Amino acid sequence: MSSITAQVGRVVGGRYRLLAPIGSGASSQVFAAVDTRLGRRVAVKVLHPALESDQTFLRLFRQEARLAASLDHPNVMRVFDWGEEEAGPYLVLELLTGGSLRRLLDAGGVLSHAQVASIGRQAAAGLAYAHRRGIIHRDIKPGNILFDEDGNLRIGDFGVARAIASAAATEPSGTVFGTARYASPEQATGATLDDRTDVYSLALVLYEARTGRVPFAAETVAATLAARVGATLPPAPELGPLAPILAAAAIPGPLARLEAADLAAELEQLERTLPPAAGLPVALLELGPQLATIADRDPTQLDPGHPSAAPTERVDHDETALAPPAGAERGRGERAAGKKPGRRRLLVAVVAVSVAALLAAGVAAVVRFEVYGHVVPSVVRDQLDTARAVLKNEGLRLRVEAERYSSKVPRGVVMSQSLAPGTRERAGSVLGVVVSKGPAPVAIPSVVGEPLALAERQLRSAGLVPVVAHAYSEHTPAGAVARQSPLSSHPKVLPGSKVTLYDSLGLPPRSVPYVVGQSLGAAEQALAHSQLKYKLGPAQYSTRYAAGEVISETPAPNSSVRQGAVVTLVASLGPPYVRVPQLQGDSVSSAEAALRSRGLSYAVYGPPFASTVYASAPGSGSRVRVGSTVDLYVI
Hints:
This protein has 635 residues and is α+β, with helices and mostly antiparallel strands. 28% of the residues lie in helices and 20% in strands. A hairpin with a 3-residue loop joins strand 2 (16-24) and strand 3.
């Protein structure tokens, strides 16, 4: 791509003048710009010129750009326009001057619980809005979490990740969408993506915002992706009350994961219990004086081709005046020629009036006798489009006067009509109809904590379809509903909608800590911290571990067990005992061999060159621990 500074001043799409660079990446450059037609500040993202020749990218870019431009939500960055030029495809976006979450985190420090809950709620709300419209972001990361000058959050780059990932110029394989540091397990394995992939990525972003660390981050992309496949979110004391919510949003299996709407609801509920969040320390972008005053400038000064900038030609003549009759300049001579011309004109006028009257009478007759007599058909039980076509064939028009809920008439079908079938009406008459909206929406009952079978019956009684998933729970006993999605606070839904019930598997499994070599007291504390119990097996002698230290544990360290499980510990009795052999009269070398064969050491006392043992301490037959020292006295 050309130098980012060289682009300043260029007019994109015939109307967007690039005024200042505000960011760049491998595939795009972003500029603060002005819409020269409207005098509005905007941001223009110019993509790599090589993408202009990639047909797969262009097809997805057009599709995704249209979808992104259709989004209208306070937490989603607005897309005003898009297009393609030789210099590269481009998007025209809402200009946000509060920077990104990436910029905020790179400035140092972490966010408070309340701040994380606030930005998480806003981001989840924006995602839920997009997901309801079938749009998945695929690249949620701190760089795409943006703020306006008041600190209000917007999600940026909707639709760009999928198109860029398809482009051979940027990602030849096109299989993994999004940034690896925040990619979901299903992105890592190439599985089919749904909207829960955005929820997982958002959970990792919020984890980093609170702890300053990206979970599962490794030295390579492959290692980073592999680390999170099948792994639960690592615990962090800094998360505090956010921990269970983020853990539920980052469950490896997408079917058991929170949806965006549920995540927003849970974070909103947590927000109410926390002190009010301090304002985010957003750093406003420096855009220069050319943008600072743009709202006060005349659009005609920005775009010489603007219609209001063109000089207008003043027209003084009266548009309603009639042209002078032909021959008027010939004076009065012809008018003075006598009465015969006047009579001729009078005769012509009489004839003209007579012809006009006859035509009017004919038209009235046609209107009276030809446009009436259209028989009204019955369109009840017809689809709306079918009813409209039937009436059009009969010379009648259809107007939808009301839409009503009905448990018997399918959605989009005519329930009643204003004109009785068989009556005759004039052409163009309007037939009013009432159209069915289908079954009325129903409230979602709250079944959290209920036994699973009872919860399923309650949902079916409400006309909803229960879908059962499974999840561990710290608070809900096995066999009861740990949580549901959507929540009961969700707006009413149509009968037949699915509600996911998470059947509790009981307490989540615990990992057995490694306590071999620790004292019994330290081992007991480590097991209690993991909510496990212990019992002692028969103690054993050990030359490796001192008395009172743990020799072994069952189940093995790092095994997955249920909470409260019992771990059997075997404690050391210290080294075993042996007896001192009979050494009197032996040579020093023989005594040394006898002691070493029993795991004992020795020390020699006596005159130089003495070689015969006459006594030992402890004496022969004494019980000592393996590893003890025996003193040899020689002569």
